[in-house]
Write a structure and sequence with these properties.
With 299 residues, this protein is an alpha/beta fold. It has helices at residues 26-39, 59-70, 90-93, 95-100, 141-153, 165-177, 203-210, 234-239, 262-275, 283-289, and strands at residues 6-9, 43-46, 76-79, 110-114, 118-119, 123-124, 129-130, 136-137, 157-162, 184-191, 219-226, 243-246, 254-255, 258-259.
Length: 299
């Protein structure tokens, strides 16, 4: 079977109340990148955070962190555009990536495009109601076309996030238009427990996603379970030929009563993939599977 691309998603907007091992600062993220790479991850996704955990989307954060990661390994970099923490116009949302493209030492390999819009309010299971009621993750078609143009300009790989079937359908239209080129790397963002914007992290939720992958275009798919335990579904994903994106950013993984580290989460999923006959893809193999170009540094 094809090798499996393992992506470490180390922090997102996760707090340390759930797991104290969530990295916030550049030095912490850099250390996790090396540790996850050593366990078999070939892609690394992170969000800029302040010491108190608040989002930090300043370009300087990404420049420092990318350079530190690059100095230690060739793991493929997939920084965020800010998720709901960077609710600016398309140009501003992409500004940190533009800054990263100034040098090979800081250039990422992927840039994300969440190909639709969705309500992303936080559910509170204790009160049985929403803690927020106006959080919209807004990605207009014009914004997405702008991102696609800039991503293509720099030779980066678009990381196409699909929260539900309507996102996948928009990806298909972009492929038809030539806004995106194959193979399309699609991440099914499933959601559980405290956010319900995606499909449930179940076999039925996954089947509903894969059923609508565009059949006329080459696609490669990976799966996230945001705020849910992806190990509940990982065996099926591995057997079905999917790839895995996992880490403490999504879920406060435990080993019994002990809080796991990101590297331990990666080691656990790599062991499971191997037991099912799929070796983790190296960086070079991941580039090959996704037909990635070398990023073009701005001059
Ligand atoms: Zn993210």
């Amino acid at each position: 079977m094809e090798k499996i691309i393992i992506e470490a998603r180390v922090n997102e907007l996760a707090t340390r109340r759930g797991n104290p091992n969530v990295p916030f600062l550049p030095s912490e993220i850099i250390a996790d990148a090396k540790a996850c790479y050593d366990e078999g991850a070939s892609v690394f996704h992170y969000h800029g955070r302040k010491a108190d955990g608040a989002p930090d989307h300043a370009p300087e954060f990404y420049l420092e962190t990318n350079a530190g990661i690059r100095a230690q390994s060739d793991i493929l970099l997939h920084p965020t555009l800010g998720y709901v923490a960077n609710d600016a116009d398309a140009r501003e949302r992409f500004a940190a990536v533009e800054a990263m493209m100034a040098s090979a030492d800081t250039a990422p390999d992927f840039a994300p495009m969440d190909c639709g819009s969705v309500n992303v309010d936080w559910w509170n299971p204790e009160t049985g109601s929403y803690d927020t009621t106006d959080l919209i993750y807004k990605n207009s078609t014009a914004t997405l076309m702008y991102f696609a143009e800039r991503i293509d300009h720099y030779g980066l790989k678009p990381y196409l996030v699909s929260w539900n079937v309507s996102f996948t359908r928009q990806i298909e239209q972009f492929l038809k238009m030539g806004v995106l080129r194959g193979p399309a790397y699609v991440c099914f963002c499933m959601t559980d427990e405290i956010i319900f914007a995606g499909h449930p992290g179940t076999q039925a939720g996954l089947d509903a996603h894969t059923a609508f992958l565009p059949s006329d275009f080459q696609t490669v798919w990976t799966v996230v379970n945001y705020k849910g335990d992806l190990f509940q579904l990982s065996e099926q994903i591995i057997r079905q030929g999917g790839h895995i994106s996992i880490g403490l950013g999504d879920y406060a993984y435990m080993d019994g009563a002990r809080h796991m580290t990101n590297a331990e989460v990666i080691a656990k999923i790599v062991a499971q993939a191997r037991s099912l006959g799929r070796e983790p893809a190296t960086v070079a193999e991941t580039r090959d599977i996704l037909q990635m170009q070398k990023p073009k540094i701005a001059t």
